[in-house]
Amino acid sequence: MNTSSVNMLHHTQEQGLALFNAAPKHSQHRQYHKDLSPLSWHLGHMAFIETYWIREIIQNDKRETAHLHDFYLPERSPKTERGKTLEAQTGLEHWARTLFAQNCQRLASLIEGHDPHPLLRDHYVLHFLIQHNAQHLETMRMVLQQQMLGEPHGHYKVAHPLEARPSATPQIHLSGGLIHLGHNNNAEAFDNELPHHPVDLKAFKIAAKPVSNGEFLGFIEANGYQEKCYWSDRGWQWQHVFRANSPEHWYQNKEGAWYAVGLGGPKDIDTESAVMGINHFEAEAFAHYAKCRLPHEQEWEHAMVTNSDIAASTGESWEWCKNTFYPYPGYRPFPYERYSSTWFDDQHFSLRGGSHHTEAMIKRASFRNFYSPDKRHIFAGLRLAQDA
Question: Residue 210: CA atoms inside 13 Å, Cβ hemisphere, count?
Fold first, then answer.
């Protein structure tokens, strides 16, 4: 049995319970953003999905899950309805904790007993559930940030003011040619990372680090949000409606000093840290301001696996890529049809790398995130690229 992996599943469960309890009781069932379900739904969904795959799919036992399909299967459950189930209102924590413990025990027993079910081959379902939970943990952190954004904080005094910086030009040159992308272990990867496949890349240049807060302040002070020339047509339409003037969680106090609101409340903005809280439209506008472009995710992944210094610079914020989310050649949906294929619609853009709030088990070069270009509640920034 892969004891360390079962322990990792237990770790994600405990993290989910801790994040649920990090919010005041009255806010655990509230929806703070139209794209984010309540904390209670995320915790319940984690427990339900584990139970669904282990008991209903592998063991053909629907007694614990059948009555919850309409609430915890996302395609059947509108987000506006996700705080209204019995489990969400009473006894959710005990219910989830009980299922979590039972699920770990059942998985361990199935693995030790060499159950022949195909989802247990190479411990696939264990890896799948760990990574599924990990993604919901980051989303729960988004919920906690949205909760904090609604609190009064205009009195915050900035100790170390944010300083504007000029945009750094991409300096790292990577030659083109035939490369291989994607994950080479089917048991540990999501279906959209597969198969491992060849790609013919042109030479390009990429920045050694993601764009910093100081560099993004330079864009703001250059009236980047007001200059139409930096924006795509769709981006300018978005900006015309929403009138953004900074990343979503940035604010100015009464003295005009910039500060950020994080999960723990207001804080100073570090000039050199990677910017986050921007959408694809904003990332694209910044790249045009800097006389650069966003990297294609093929370029991004190639840079990460071939340059250890670039790889070490990731992980502060997700990095928007220029391309929409697409299926790799030879893509096959697994473990079910809709996991990725629904999002291959040319309306979702790829992001890579992970943020401070991303669990370590999905911070790998091949992992692909995706959102529509208007989303800025996510922990996302950018890295610059240029043609060679």
Answer: 28
